[in-house]
Predict the structure.
Amino acid sequence: MRFLTAGESHGPQLTTIIEGLPSNLELTKDDIDPWLAKRQGGYGRGRRMVIERDEANIVSGVRAGRTTGAPVTFVIENRDWRNWTEIMSPLPGGEPRKKALTAARPGHADLPGGIKYRLRDLRDVLERASARETASRVAVGAVGLKLLSDLGVEGVGHVVSLGGIESTVPFEWSRVAEVEDSELRCLDLEASGRMIERIDAAKKDGDTLGGVVEVRFRGLPVGLGSHVHWDRKLDGRIAAAVMGIQAIKGVEIGLGFEAARRPGSAVHDPIFLRERGYERDSNGAGGLEGGMTNGEDLVVRAAMKPIATLMKPLPTVDVATREAADAARERSDTTAVPAASVIVQCAVAWVLADAMLEKFGGDSMEELRERVASAHAFARAY
Ligand SMILES: Cc1cc2nc3c(=O)[nH]c(=O)nc-3n(C[C@H](O)[C@H](O)[C@H](O)COP(=O)(O)O)c2cc1C
Ligand SMILES: C=C(O[C@@H]1CC(C(=O)O)=C[C@@H](OP(=O)(O)O)[C@H]1O)C(=O)O
C-alpha cells in the first residue's frame, strides 16, 4: 500500500490518496473523524486548534460504507484558510502582499528550506513543513487502525514524559480508556497536574516543551517484516515512519537505549512453550526480533523536541537583510506532545497494516482475515 498527502497549512484543504487497500473493509468518516479530534486535543495547543474542526470527507474508493479496492481519497478542510486567503495569494512573480517571513526560526525548516528551494519568503517553506500535514497522516493511520482492528489487533498511544516530568504509572491494557479520558493522554494524573503547570509556566515565559510518547499494539501475528534484507526489517520501517513526523528526534523499540546499559541476561526475553503457544514473561525486545514481530506486544517510544517557534524569540539572521534579528513569531503551540501520541500511533498503525498486506496479500478483507487466522494457528502449533 502507499499514500500521498498534499496541501499547505493555510491553504484550502489537505488532500490524501491511499492506494492498495483491500476491498470490503467497512469504512466511513466515523472511523476517521474521532482520530482527527484526538490529534487536535491535548493541553498546550495554540489558538489554531480552536478554529479547526477536522473531518475527513471521503471522495473516492468507498461505496455503501465499504472499500472497493480502488484508491481512497479524502479531503480535510482548513477552516483557517478564509483568514489567510490574502497572505496565501502572493502577487504574480511571488511578491508577497504582506511582509514576507524572513527571520528564519531556529529549529524549523525555514533556513534550509529557503536555501534548498531558493525561496525568499520563508512562508513558502513553512506552509508545507508545518505539522498541519499530520492531520492527513492521522486519517491514513485511522484507516490502518480500522484494518488492524478487523484482524484482531488493538493499539494505544500515550504520553510518558512532558517537559522533563515523567509518568510513573506503568501501562496496562485495562487502562486504555483512562488515556482517552485524560487531558494530556497520560496515565499518571499526579504527574499530569505538574505537566500542566509546567506548560502554563513555559507559555508565560514565551518558551515551549517537548516530551516522550509510547505506543503499543497487541494481537499481531508472528512474522510481520523480515530479517532477510535491511529495508524489509519492521523496526527500521517503523523508525522511518515515526522519525518522519515533524519534531520527532528519537525512536526506541522495547528497552531501546536502556538495553545498551544492561547485560544480555537482563535484556533478552526467555522463551516458554505453553498452552497458548510460544510465550515470554518479559518484553525487552518490544515485540520485535530480527526485524519481525514475535507475537509479543509491540512497544515503540518517540522523543519529541520542543516546538521551534518561541514567543520569546531566539537570535537569528534575517535572510532579506542578512542582519541579526529576532526569530519570526508565528501563532504556535506551547507543546503538542499529546497530539504526537496520536500521530505516532497512527504512523505505526499504517506500517503494520502495510506489513499485514505484504505478508498475507489478499485483494479483499475476507481473504486477509482467513490468512491471518491461519497464521495464528500455525504459530501456536509450530
Ligand atoms: C502536532 C504537532 C504540532 C506542532 N506545532 C508546532 C507549532 O505550533 N509551531 C512550531 O514552530 N512547530 C510546531 N511543530 C513542529 C514543527 O512542525 C517542526 O519542528 C518543523 O516542521 C521542523 O521539522 P523537524 O522538527 O522535524 O526538524 C509541531 C509538530 C507536531 C507534530
Ligand atoms: C495546524 C496545525 O498545527 C500547526 C503546526 C505548526 C508547525 O509549524 O508545525 C504551526 C502552527 O500553525 P499555526 O501558526 O497555523 O497555528 C500549528 O497550529 C495542526 O496541527 O493542525
About this structure: The chain has a mean pLDDT of 96. Residues 2-381 form a domain with the Chorismate synthase, AroC fold fold (CATH 3.60.150.10). The longest strand covers residues 154-162. Residues 46, 107-109, 129-131, 134, 245-247, 305, 307-309, 332-333, 336, 339-340, 343 surround flavin mononucleotide (ligand 1) (CB under 6 Å).
